[in-house]
Amino acid sequence: MKKEPRLMQGNEACVEGAIAAGMRFYAGYPITPSTEIAELSAEKLPYVGGRFIQMEDEIAGMAATIGAALTGVKCMTATSGPGFSLKQENIGYAAIAEIPCVIVDVQRGGPSTGQPTCPSQGDVMQAKWGTHGDHPVIALTPSSVKETFDLTVRCFNLAEKYRMPVILLLDEVIGHMREKVQLPEASEIEIIDRKRPACSSEEYLPFKPEEDLVPPMADFGTGYRYHVTGLVHDETGFPSNSTKVADKLIRRLVDKIEMHKDDIIQWEEENTEDAEIIILSYGCVARAARTAMKALREKGVKVGLFRPITIWPFPEERVLELAGKVKSIIVAEMNLGQLVLEVERLCNNITKIDRVNKVSGEIIYPEEIAAKVEEVL
Amino acid sequence: MEKYEVRLSGSGGQGLLLAGIILAEAAITEGKNAVQTQSYGPEARGGASKSEVLISDEAIDFPKVRNCDILLALTQKAYEQYNEGLKEDGILIVDSSVAVDKNETHKVYSAPITESAVVNLGKPMVTNIVALGTIIGITNMLTKEALEQAVLKRVPKGTEDLNRRALSLGYEMGENAKI
Question: Which residue does chain B place closest to A290, by CA atoms?
Fold first, then answer.
């Protein structure tokens, strides 16, 4: 039994997805165009026994999210560009201390306070490299309201499964638009919970990984006492100056993602079988790309669409495969060229790479993408 | 396949965002797909505000209006700002306070939308509902029943009667404007 179709906003679908996934704590500082996520979390969490707290700023919002996550609760915070910048230090903390949580960034024009009400995809590289040091990153990017629901659930599941912060990269268009959606019943939604220790508290080593490289995580307050730090630490959680320990830890954190890439990476492709040109785009721009592709196909132009759903780690293998078959890959994105750098790194000697970029604060129009395709043909 | 790209424009406070949501919900009631977006960026400052609704039997990819089929302009400023985006055979619905350019080439329907909300109903806050009724009366793009259902779902308790009257008044004005 499906729920009735209804009109829903992207930001609302994010909150619905989060609660369905088990979010019971939200800490944040409201900022356009993500504000509805805070508002609706404040409204809905008390009804499911959860807590909402508005902190004094984005930094504290991230810190409270991490703290609450250590007690075993599923936590989320949401923000936009300026707040995403502020959260970076604590995102790094969550990465090294292996604390599962979800960070939503509804992208707006930057840098700085930039264009508060306008869409952008300028935070793609910030999602990957915003915090310093080598660290694992998972970032997902939806292009519809329904997918915002699904991917928010997935963010929680991946965070729990791999004990790490996971980023949902939305943009102002998807966050604010309303469209018809049919949400799944609770019984149809896969929910993953973090591994908890099977041993006694005396035997517990909080950072001793199992075969999947993920250590089981005990809830604070249940008698499993352990130390949490942003410093390099050994399996007990206490800081270590050992070069061996540091090397092992940082490599494991990164390998945790490398090892499970096939489980994490998702993409969608359309008309790629016979395509001579592939448009690669994501988020709201992928909708413009699909409109352009349909119009060009009607004219007989062999063009396909590749849409990364998991943006980090990037779907390298499939993009490489496709690159070998086409005349050009056109990367359309609302920035001056960010994800295209990844495509260039992979495919520069294999196929021609072209760009469609826009930073005016308006979504890229289908005809702008179509014009580039016809120019490249 | 029928596809409508609708732009509702006027000034902030006229309830056009809610009108867009109601129009999209009415379309869903009829089993169609609908996407609603609004802009409240720099272009919304200084008075002009707009809400956009796309309605289609098929999936809707690009979420913004590109070839506007129906433009509602409740103010002079909105008319001047958005008329350019209306396609050649598009329908222009303006409040009677709007002075339409004498070289206007679009099909124009003019109705006293804001005035009747104030004079006939005594409530300027139902301007948006009168406007929705007028649009449906002129275009028949959705049924009056679907629209009424969507209106009643969204308006505050205790105002159902007022909104029903606002809708009927708008609908009649729309039908009359066609003659």
Answer: B61
